[in-house]
Amino acid sequence: MSWFRRSQENIAAETQKKEIPDGLWTKCTQCGEIIHKMELKKNFYTCSKCTAHFRVGSREYIDLLVDPGSFREYDRNMRSADPLKFVDTKKYRDRTNEAYKKTRLYDAIRWGTGKIEKQPAVLAAMDFSFIGGSMGSVVGEKVGRAIDRAWKSRTPLVVISSSGGARMMEGALSLMQMAKTSAKLTRLAGVGVPYISVLTDPTTGGVTASFAMLGDVNIGEPGALIGFAGPRVIRQTIGKDLPPGFQRADFLLEHGFLDMVVHRKEMRQTVSRLISMLK
Ligand SMILES: [Zn+2]
């Protein structure tokens, strides 16, 4: 009855667990389960009880995809020039400075090169915590540069999206990024370099309407909200109640908007397998 035998490793893990200091717990917003933050990290920032996928930053996401130590970041200090000198409830410049203080990021995306199970890849990952992962000129430019690099070096591209949409403080310059990234992706497709798009919760607005939905394979995380306009706006427009699960990854898979829904713990193997199949 080997089930009851506790291995030395298990005993070590249990002893370790007891030594974890208090004050590091978090509650699953979906099922209410209390989870230790270390446990959460070990579980790829998902709830082990209900499989809710927590939002993670670009650094964490890249870490869980690439081989340790293989990631090299580019254009880390690129910042928006605030060409419109935009002011709403506060100055756009103040808003970006505050976001920097909070996140230590200059904008809502990080890009670079790395290896996924020994296969070279160009990666870009978004940060929802930076002004709602909104796409302004920096997000568009970094995605553009990632695509260019993938094109020049004929290296597969992986983009992890998480966005509330276009960044209104950059007006039309923000909207232009949709055309720019889409055009570059067309060029990439022309030389047959694979592009895998991973859509995390939430991916909406201009990001969905451009590069996030243009992957050779579009992968959604379970439960992720993916759409263009939000459900409230759609409900008001069509004057009808929306079906259950509307705009969630599984619903989109069923209706042909996604190719796969993949649990985060299987993301690395899935992306790696797709790269070796498509390249
Ligand atoms: Zn849960």
Structural overview:
It is globular, with a radius of gyration of 20 Å. 37% of the residues lie in helices and 17% in strands. A 7-stranded mixed β-sheet has the order 3-4-5-6-7-8-9, with helices on both faces. With 279 residues, it is an alpha/beta fold. The model is unreliable at 15-20 (pLDDT under 50). The chain starts with 7 loop residues before the first helix and ends with a helix. Zinc ion (ZN) is lined by residues 28, 30-31, 33, 47, 49-50, 52.
Shape label = globular
Largest beta sheet: strand ordering: 3-4-5-6-7-8-9
What is the averaged pLDDT score? 93
Total beta-strand segments: 9
What is the element string, with H for helices and E for strands? HEEHHEHEEHEHEHEHHEH
Number of helices: 10
| Radius of gyration, CA atoms, in whole angstroms | 20 Å
**Distinct small-molecule ligands in the complex:** zinc ion
What amount of the residues lies in strands? Answer: 15-25%
Task: Give a short account of the largest sheet.
Answer: 7 strands, mixed
Low-confidence stretches: 15-20
Helix content: 25-40%
State the end-to-end distance.
Answer: 47 Å
Class from secondary-structure proportions: alpha/beta
Give the gist of this structure.
The chain has 279 residues and is α/β, with parallel strands linked by helices.
Write the layout of secondary structure elements.
Elements: H1 8-18, E1 25-27, E2 34-36, H2 37-42, H3 58-65, E3 72-74, H4 92-103, E4 109-116, E5 119-126, H5 137-153, E6 157-163, H6 171-190, E7 195-203, H7 205-208, E8 217-220, H8 231-238, H9 249-254, E9 260-261, H10 267-278
Parallel strand pairs: 5-6, 6-7, 7-8, 8-9
Antiparallel strand pairs: 1-2, 3-4, 4-5
Helix pairs in contact: 5-6
The chain binds zinc ion (ZN).
